[in-house]
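In the design runs reported in the main text, the only information available to the sequence generator was the tokenized backbone. The following block is the verbatim input for one such run; it is reproduced so that readers can re-run the procedure and compare outputs position by position.
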């Protein structure tokens, strides 16, 4: 996928099985608090041990009971029982309670050193070689989209899922100067399609548009260069760049992926890392067992990029991977119009909203910028039914590094 601007961000690695101690003031006597193990006093604090997976739910419950969370701190414990909160207990008066600087479910950041950035720059690019260039659009589809693999042997260009690389097209521009680089989202895992740590792959659509004045058909410089490139050709590559779209380390996470067209590129990398058998063997510390849900918008069925791969994963991991298509020229929405990705999001808005309440749910959006408003509208509608301001909720998810957008 062509990525015109990769914004810097912070990857996140979830707290997993950690336990947290909530200090609460102001709990009122009620039917719910009557069932607690300890009586509710009119003054003083109550302490509740909460597993990470239930932090959001406990916050909501405490608010309903009139309580105010005044302090949260991590404590020991395996936290494996996420089905219910631990009993309410009073902490000894001598127990130190260290405040957290940030509010609870915000996820810890991955060490910056683990994310490679700008290993190769435009003034000193890596010279890679094209291994293969394969079409992704089946007969009857629209446009040209290619899966292009580059050989990285002999260099130090390495990356992680969700990053991008730059391509500098061969030749000179209209002013006789070298072409500027274009950024493309990486479509392969850190191990590459051959799983030998020696390749990187891109998903590239040839840009084609009509000149507003001359009405002539104009083709994108770099996309045309790449879509027609021959195996064996040497290519100038820069990067990698980007931290906004990184996959969380938590193997129990819920990962919602909203894609249009070549926006599928980073999600292919995620899904390979999560589900490909050889990848799972190569990553013993990351054995995904959460839920991945891809909503993929395309114009025609032949434009479903990586269709066989996606449907094979769906068949093999039906409990962990959901695949939902929005095929605009073949399917209709509830109003009888074309079925776009925002219409699918509206159909599943209640379920998506519920998943987003989990502190280890990450939502990713990649593809055409035009889908953002429609998706916001669909989720805003369900949020308002819950008495929540969607824009504020989205900002909070962004602050917690759980809302990731890369559109163009």
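Verbatim output:
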């Amino acid at each position: 996928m062509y990525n015109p601007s990769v914004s810097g961000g912070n990857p996140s690695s979830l707290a997993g099985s950690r336990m947290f101690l909530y200090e609460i003031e102001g709990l009122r006597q009620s039917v719910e608090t009557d069932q607690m193990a300890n009586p509710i006093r009119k003054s003083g604090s109550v302490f509740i041990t909460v597993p990470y997976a239930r932090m959001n739910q406990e916050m909501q419950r405490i608010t309903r009971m009139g309580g105010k969370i005044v302090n949260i701190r991590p404590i020991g414990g395996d936290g494996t029982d996420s089905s219910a909160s631990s009993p309410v207990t009073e902490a000894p008066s001598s127990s130190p309670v260290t405040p957290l600087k940030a509010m609870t479910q915000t996820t810890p950041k991955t060490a910056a050193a683990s994310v490679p950035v700008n290993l190769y720059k435009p003034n000193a690019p890596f010279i890679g070689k094209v291994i293969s260039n394969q079409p992704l659009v089946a007969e009857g589809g629209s446009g040209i989209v290619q899966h292009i693999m580059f050989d990285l042997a002999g260099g130090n260009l390495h990356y992680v899922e969700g990053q991008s690389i730059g391509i500098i097209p061969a030749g000179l521009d209209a002013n006789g100067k070298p072409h500027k680089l274009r950024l493309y989202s990486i479509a392969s895992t850190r191990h590459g399609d051959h799983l030998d740590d020696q390749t990187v792959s891109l998903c590239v659509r040839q840009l084609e548009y009509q000149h507003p004045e001359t009405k002539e058909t104009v083709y994108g410089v770099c996309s045309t260069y790449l879509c027609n490139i021959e195996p064996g050709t040497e290519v100038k590559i820069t990067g990698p760049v980007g931290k906004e779209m990184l996959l969380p380390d938590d193997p129990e996470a819920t990962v919602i992926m909203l894609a249009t067209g070549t926006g599928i590129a980073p999600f292919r990398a995620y899904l390979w890392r999560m589900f490909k058998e050889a990848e799972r063997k190569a990553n013993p510390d990351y054995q995904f067992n959460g839920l991945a849900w891809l909503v993929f918008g395309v114009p025609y069925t032949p434009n479903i990029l990586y269709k066989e791969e996606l449907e094979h994963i769906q068949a093999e991991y039906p409990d962990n991977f959901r695949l939902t298509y929005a095929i605009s020229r073949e399917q209709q929405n509830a109003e009888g119009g074309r079925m776009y990705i925002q219409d699918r999001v509206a159909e599943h808005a209640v379920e998506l909203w519920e998943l987003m309440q989990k502190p280890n749910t990450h939502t990713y959006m990649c593809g055409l910028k035009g889908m953002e408003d429609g998706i916001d509208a669909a989720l805003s509608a369900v949020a308002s039914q819950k008495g929540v301001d969607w824009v504020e909720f989205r900002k909070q998810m962004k602050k917690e590094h759980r809302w990731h957008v890369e559109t163009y």
